[in-house]
Amino acid sequence: MALSCGHNFCRLCIEEALYSQAVWTCPTCMADLGVTLELHNNFKLRNIVEAFKAIASKAPRKAITSTARRESLQQDEGSEKGKTDVVPCEQCLDEPQPAVKACLICEVSLCQAHLSKHNVRDFHQEHILVEVGAGKEEERRCRDHGKLLECYCVREKKCICVLCSMAGAHKGHEVITMKEGHDKELVKLSSIMTDLRESKSDLVTALEELQEGENQIKNNTKTLTSDLKKLFRSIKAELGKKQTMILSDIRSYEEADLALVTKARKEMEQKRDLAEQNLRALQMLKEQPDIFLFFRDLKVVTDRIVSLDLVAEDVKVEAMQLNDRLMTQYETQKKKFLLQLDYLLDDLRDQNRVVDEEEEVRKNNNAWDFFLLLSCSQKILFPCFFHEDMMYWMIQVFHSLCF
């Protein structure tokens, strides 16, 4: 049955829907139908149905549906991988032509010829035409009511049909048109893109600082190596082993620090690439002309962005060098040490004396002291070194050296 606005419905369905309303309006376009319900037979649609039934009864083959026509055209086009499916026109009775547009209100795919006829009627001017294959048709319709998704629930952030907003699960929610929702979300996307650009800029700056830090680490190594070599040369062979050990430690520190910087750089490069990737995804989403596809991909993209960690870590490497104050103190201590060595030698010369004692061994608190008792002909020069529980002395016996 056809309403005065031009939309077609099953008689039982439209009567059930209209009689439950206080004011009779078309469920599709919400046009006011007046105080009396006028239902008209759609003879054209009825003739098409009867023609299909007649053809189906004469030939025991698949029903001539849009799916059957599509399969027939696909067989003609070949089954090569990667070819685009051809959707047939559902108004062609004899030989279906490829559809160029699909009307979501009429629920039909139209070839160029039937599309021109469709657009001639005034009440078809507001119908929604989409590219063939631009999203599955069932995705654009309410699962509960089968109606076209034309509204947007702000609370649930979901596309809904008119019946959902009036008597369904979204009754009482803030509901706006999909166009209004699209405009609001575009504003939010612009803000998100601004934040992403700032994050990307921070990451780029942080990467530059990391590069500077890496160069500084290498410069630190060169500086420390040069200074330490000067220090090691000042004490020559006595500190040769120490020189090798310290330089080896510094290189180990360099490798460890560079490893940390390299790890941080890789992480920030990944964050930068993720930021760039999501910027491109948001730009494509922002430029999406199909509102349904926009909302279909919006939540996926925004949820992914919210879950990302794009904070640029502050990793800075300070310049390193030997402490000047400590170096001055060391030079002073070194001079003192060298001077004390001279004093020690002088003192040892002054202590070059003869000791006359009887040999004696004593034990005290499980520890013992070793005293070397020498005859009057022996001279104690100076103690050489200690080793565990023994003390070694250098002595002169009859003018010869021994241990």
TrEMBL record:
<dbReference type="InterPro" id="IPR001841">
    <property type="entry name" value="Znf_RING"/>
</dbReference>
<dbReference type="GO" id="GO:0008270">
    <property type="term" value="F:zinc ion binding"/>
</dbReference>
<dbReference type="InterPro" id="IPR018957">
    <property type="entry name" value="Znf_C3HC4_RING-type"/>
</dbReference>
<dbReference type="InterPro" id="IPR051051">
    <property type="entry name" value="E3_ubiq-ligase_TRIM/RNF"/>
</dbReference>
<dbReference type="InterPro" id="IPR013083">
    <property type="entry name" value="Znf_RING/FYVE/PHD"/>
</dbReference>
<protein>
    <submittedName>
        <fullName>Uncharacterized protein</fullName>
    </submittedName>
</protein>
<dbReference type="InterPro" id="IPR000315">
    <property type="entry name" value="Znf_B-box"/>
</dbReference>
<dbReference type="Pfam" id="PF00643">
    <property type="entry name" value="zf-B_box"/>
</dbReference>
<dbReference type="Pfam" id="PF00097">
    <property type="entry name" value="zf-C3HC4"/>
</dbReference>
<dbReference type="InterPro" id="IPR017907">
    <property type="entry name" value="Znf_RING_CS"/>
</dbReference>
